[in-house]
Amino acid sequence: APAATAAPATPPATAAPPATPDAGAPSAVQHVVLAGGVYDEQGAAVDGAMITIRSLNTAASYEATTVTNAGAWVVNDVPEGVNVEVVATKANWTLRKRVGSFQADTDSRNTLNFGAPGNRPDGGAAFFLSNRPEVIATEPAHAAEKQDPTALLYKLRLSEPLSDSGRKRFEDALRVFPANQYASPGGAAADLSAQDDAGAVDVEATYDYVIKEGTLFLDDAATSATVSWDEAKTVATIELKAPLIADKANAAKYQVGLVASAAEEPEIEDLQGKQLGTSDAGVLSAYPAAGNLIRNVFKKGTLAIDDEAGSAADRWNATHDSVATFKLSKDAVAPTLAAIKVNVIGNDTRIELTFSEAMAAHDDTAGYFDAAITTLANYSFAVAEQAADLDLDLEGDADLPTVNPGVEAVYGDEDDDLEAEFRLVDEDGTANNGQTQAGDIEVKVSPRNAKVVWITIEGRTDWFDAGLDAIKGRAEGFGDPAGNDITDASADAHTPIGNL
For residues 385 and 248, what is the distance between their CA atoms, to the nearest angstrom? Predict the structure, then answer.
């Protein structure tokens, strides 16, 4: 072994910098030589990589840069025992960052590698550089908690710009999937029915509930998911304008991933034609079948290779995730009925109930989830100040709902002048369960606004007359997607009938 290099002499006290040292900083800093190598995922040396070193201790400032020659680098006069940040990067390659402190020892230098030569594993094998693109960070960060389900912006930061076609494919490939049962009520993703908080579910386009770029929420272009890019074309922001499903007692979990396109479409590549992610089997040169999840796209927050990595694919798989996850805040706020409106639509009467929040959430297949109203019990209404020629038979007939005439001030105080209450029921006399029944009552969320629920009385326009001054409605049995039922105190609303 070479003889130990003597440490530089300690400078005299008068030469010490005037700045007050950080707590725990050495009073007299000695120096060491720091060297290492830079390798790619295949274990090949990376020439021309830039190494930047800077001290993280203000009492021992230090900064130096160098460039690798055949993968090797060396820097002198690194402060001993001081935390320094070492960054290795190369244009259009990944960036890797390591932090450590170093002591003088019997050797003439300390070693810090980025990657490992050949198939040899060591402490730096996970920090290899690559000229393949990757998602280096997300915002919210992976495994973030308590995200707002009503207004979520999700950002993905890439290690380098993609080609024009690769960027378009990236937008098309983005997906947001449910990752536990609280994000997928009503069995929309059957295989999540028992998933409380497992690891990220490995999706392969098997779920009905998927949010993707350009997808219309409730057939409304104003609520479609959109993707935008920053000026450098390295940060993609997906805006989820439609509310995500939350839960009132548990944290709903979601995951973000990308899926492969049809074989004839271009894949996601950078400006040098290098591909993002891997195949199902971890192969670097091929993508999975169209619609299946592209694997190993996201750089892990903590890079580590536990076992010997025998190939480039092995190393890439060991240091990258297929999806990133986040959790929503719990939603314990019950909806309220904000307004009621009555319209005649063709041969039908439509009652529109507007609630304080969306009453359904996005479903890529059907356009909306009706899970929010499947527990519907009934709908009650009260009418006021009828004209003499009103032809609505409040005593009821075989085709009309049950009516209880003469009940004054059913809701609120007597100033409301409400004269009669009636309740919508099926023709067989049982409470409507929120499902469509031909010729009777249909209940659905408006395809234009998820806060509006339509109750359509099919084939009848004579339920309400222009002679009615007002109608007051009560919505019972409604709940939001989180499972919060509407309360008695917030179930009432009334409106003029002048539009009939």
Answer: 41
Q: Which contiguous run of DSSP H or E holds residue 312? A: helix 312-319
- Distance separating alpha carbons of residues 55 and 78, to the nearest angstrom: 8
Token pair 């009552």 is found at 441
Rounded to an integer, what distance in angstroms lies between the CA atom of residue 442 and that of residue 456?
Answer: 5
Q: Give strand pairing partners of 111.
A: 35
Q: Is the pLDDT of residue 426 over 50?
A: no
Strand 378-384 with 470-476, pairing = antiparallel
* Token pair in block for residue 156: 């993905």
Residues 69 and 7: their CA atoms lie apart, in Å, by 27
What is the CB neighbour count within 10 angstroms for residue 397? Answer: 8
Phi first, then psi: what are they for 132, rounded to 5°? Answer: -95, 140
Q: How far apart (Å, rounded) are the C-alpha atoms in residues 255 and 240?
A: 13
Whole-number Å distance between alpha carbons of 157 and 243 = 23
Give SS3 for 47. Answer: coil
Higher-confidence residue of 287 and 467: namely: 287
Provide, rounded to the nearest whole percent, the portion of the chain with pLDDT above 90.
35
Q: The pTM is what?
A: 0.77
Are 277 and 174 spatial neighbours (Cβ–Cβ below 8 Å)? no
Output the CA–CA distances (angstroms, integers) from residue 30 to 79, 103, 292, 354, 428, in the order listed: 6, 9, 55, 72, 91
Contact indicator for 279, 260 with CB cutoff of 8 Å: no
Instruction: Kindly tell me the burial class for residue 84, based on how many C-beta atoms sit within 10 Å of its own C-beta (0-12, 13-18, 19 or more).
Output: buried
What are the tokens at 371? 């899970």
335 contact partners, CB below 8 Å, separation of at least 6: 355, 356, 357, 359, 478, 479, 480, 484, 486, 490
CA dist 106 → 1, 4, 20, 89, 102 (Å): 8, 5, 32, 30, 13
- Please give the Cα distance from 162 to 165 (Å, whole number): 8
